[in-house]
What we know:
Blueprint: E1 2-4, E2 7-8, H1 21-29, E3 37-38, E4 61-64, H2 76-88, E5 93-98, H3 104-107, E6 119-124, H4 128-138, E7 145-150, E8 166-172, E9 182-183, H5 184-196, E10 200-205, E11 209-212, E12 215-218, H6 224-231
Parallel strand pairs: 1-4, 4-5, 5-6, 6-7, 7-8, 8-10, 9-11
Antiparallel strand pairs: 2-3, 11-12
Amino acid sequence: MAIWNPWRGCHRYSTGCKYCYIHKGDDKKGIDTNIVKKTEKFYAPIEKTKNGTYNIKSGQIVYVCFSSDFLLEDADKWRAECWEMIRERSDLHFLFLTKRIERFLDCIPKDWHSGYENVTVGCTVENQENADYRLGIFSHLPIKHKNIICQPLIEPINLSAYLQEVELVVVGGESDKNARPLDYDWVLQIRQQCMSQNVHFEFRQCGTHFIKDNKLYTLKVGDLCKQAKKANINF
Length: 235
């Protein structure tokens, strides 16, 4: 696994961004997250060692833009170079998430056609309204590998109409002292929707405020992923 953040900075885009961990972290450091700029690791996928081999070894999954959004408007001037690197490193598998899926067709390279085999796109949704809007677009896009990311999940969502050709659905709660609660029943409902259509499901993390059996729990940030894994409900 490798992480590639060709730029940093982003803008809150929808209700799911309310307690964004990037914005929170930047606030503590006195950084303005709304300033979007290239990072020193922009060319990381094609950087080589002294003996001419790639720094990022073949066969890895590369998580792209996890401190921003790959389809962010501010990055339009840099994205073509990123596609060139993704094309060059066909031996790696690149995965990015986006809340801006409506921009997808304006952001892909000319040779995209039905999609690159080494790219997975995750469409992020947090409530039913955004699921219906974004996934209504996502389901018709030419993408080889599709994931749906329900994180933070802030209300029950029915994904049944959008699971065709989706490889994985990830569910997780919100991490913040003021976080909106995650109800375990919502998680189980999405799991059942995935199982009904034989789509892989992963419960990634609980929320800071977590409801189970009608009882509200407050969890430590460090325990959110541990507790989700302990539930042992991945499919």
